[in-house]
């Protein structure tokens, strides 16, 4: 039986959030772990962006963006009303706005801080400071709410926590003094300590066409 295929990379925050959605929505896919330094020809031929994650549906339709994969997973889930739960209609605009803030603002500075050698080493501190502003802004949101958008989790939380986690790890690796305090520390801990986290971050061998099929989530 044919299965939808997810091309992924274990540590990529965009791929992490797509896999998280698949886990919550209880959707199984064939997973193909991509070596980003040696991308397989099959992946290159079907991907316009040449980045992970991408989902290849059984009808050959390709979904290129992680947010679109998340929305697809919510639509395909057998859980009743799950899409309305995680993308409530009255908060849809606010949810998409904060996701855009992460993807177009925070991510820009995060990359230039974490990978400063690839960009401009002399600007590492600048991008660290700018990235930290987003953390402080979201922390203020969480003072009044349990989640980023109100008292219930939404895809805004799904989409942003992998990047906050990456920033925290970059601060630790690059010995930057930035203290993750509650409530954002607790908010991030909801994911890092979640019962699904081990499945989410299971390490798969790099894929090539000779590999035996493997599936996500790993059982």
Strand order of the largest sheet: 4-3-1-2-5
Count of discrete domains: 2
Rough shape?
A: globular
What are the segments in which pLDDT stays under 50 over at least 5 consecutive residues? none
| Residues in helix, % | 40-55%
Q: What is the multimeric organization of the chains shown?
A: single chain
* Main pleated-sheet profile: 5 strands, mixed
Here the CATH topology of the largest domain equals Glutathione S-transferase Yfyf (Class Pi), Chain A, domain 2
**Total number of helical segments?**
9
Give me the secondary-structure category.
alpha+beta
Q: Roughly how many Å is the radius of gyration?
A: 18 Å
Strand content bin: 5-15%
Following the backbone from N to C, one meets helices and strands in this order, namely EHEHEEHHHHHHHE
Brief sketch in words of this structure:
The protein has helices at about 15-25, 40-45, 65-75, 80-85, 90-115, 125-145, 155-175, 185-190, 195-200, and strands spanning about 5-10, 30-35, 55, 60-65, 215.
What would you note in describing this structure?
The protein is of the alpha+beta class. The protein folds into 2 domains: 5-83 and 198-216, Glutaredoxin (3-Layer(aba) Sandwich); 87-192, Glutathione S-transferase Yfyf (Class Pi), Chain A, domain 2 (Up-down Bundle), CATH 1.20.1050. The protein has 9 helices and 5 strands, in the order βαβαββαααααααβ. The protein has helices at residues 13-24, 41-46, 66-76, 82-86, 92-114, 124-144, 155-173, 184-192, 197-200; strands at residues 5-8, 29-33, 54-56, 62-63, 215-216. The chain has a 5-stranded mixed sheet with strand order 4-3-1-2-5. Helix 1 (13-24) crosses helix 7 (155-173). It is globular, with a radius of gyration of 18 Å. 32% of the residues are buried.
């Amino acid at each position: 039986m044919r299965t939808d295929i997810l091309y992924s990379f274990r540590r990529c925050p965009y791929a992490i959030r797509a896999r998280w959605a698949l886990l919550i929505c209880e959707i199984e896919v064939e997973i193909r772990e991509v070596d980003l330094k040696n991308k397989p020809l099959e992946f290159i031929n079907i991907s316009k962006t040449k980045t992970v994650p991408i989902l290849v549906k059984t009808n050959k339709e390709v979904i290129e963006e992680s947010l679109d994969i998340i929305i697809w997973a919510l639509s395909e889930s057998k859980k009743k009303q799950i899409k309305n739960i995680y993308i409530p209609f009255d908060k849809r605009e606010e949810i998409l706005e904060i996701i855009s803030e992460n993807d177009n603002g925070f991510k820009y500075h995060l990359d230039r801080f974490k990978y400063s050698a690839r960009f401009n080493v002399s600007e590492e501190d600048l991008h660290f400071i700018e990235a930290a502003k987003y953390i402080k802004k979201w922390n203020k949101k969480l003072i009044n709410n349990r989640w980023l958008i109100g008292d219930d989790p939404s895809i805004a939380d799904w989409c942003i926590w992998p990047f906050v986690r990456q920033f925290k790890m970059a601060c630790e690796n690059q010995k930057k003094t930035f203290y993750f305090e509650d409530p954002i520390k607790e908010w991030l801990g909801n994911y890092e300590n979640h019962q699904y986290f081990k499945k989410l971050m299971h390490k798969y061998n790099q894929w090539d066409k000779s590999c035996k099929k493997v599936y996500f989530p790993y059982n």
